[in-house]
């Protein structure tokens, strides 16, 4: 644009560089995290894992991740944005699902890095930021919160014998405890 045109544009009250700015901020949907994740799912994930597992991970992305960060470019997604969406999942009581969503997002980012469409994986900066997956054990007036991954009591207490029994049971059933289950309520 010539200097004369710029002066005329400024005199009219418009920004001569505004058109360029608008064009540069518009994003091609193919550049979004959602597009990258769908490509990863079709080309990599769906071919490498059991179908039911792949479908569950795709469902997690669609229901929990895409509504918050799907429209962003992978390089625009920051660790605080990821942490915010993961804590929203935790707030619904689905702590293990939040951990799984973080893992799936990490796989997508690493795929994007390998293609040169992402520069880094923001989930790597969130180690230890989510609450540990746990369950609650009750005995009489005693209550304990047990970490599933370490099989240790995080909070509360149980009598010595019951503590040994609960922790032994947790170690034996650790793999099954990691599978997300609907929240169960007992009323007695």
Automatic annotation (TrEMBL):
MF term (GO), any: DNA binding
Q: Which Pfam families match?
A: DUF4160, Phage_int_M
Query: Where is the Phage integrase central domain positioned along the sequence?
Result: 33-128
Cite the residue spans of the region called Disordered: 1-26
Superkingdom of origin organism? Bacteria
Identify the SUPFAM superfamilies for this entry.
DNA breaking-rejoining enzymes
Q: Which GO terms describe its biological process?
A: DNA integration
Keywords, ordered alphabetically: DNA integration, DNA-binding
**InterPro entries, alphabetically?**
DNA_brk_join_enz, DUF4160, Integrase_recombinase_N, Phage_int_M, Phage_Integrase
What family does the database annotate?
A: Belongs to the 'phage' integrase family.
Protein's name in the database:
Uncharacterized protein DUF4160
Q: What is the lineage of its organism?
A: Bacteria, Pseudomonadati, Thermodesulfobacteriota, Desulfobacteria, Desulfobacterales
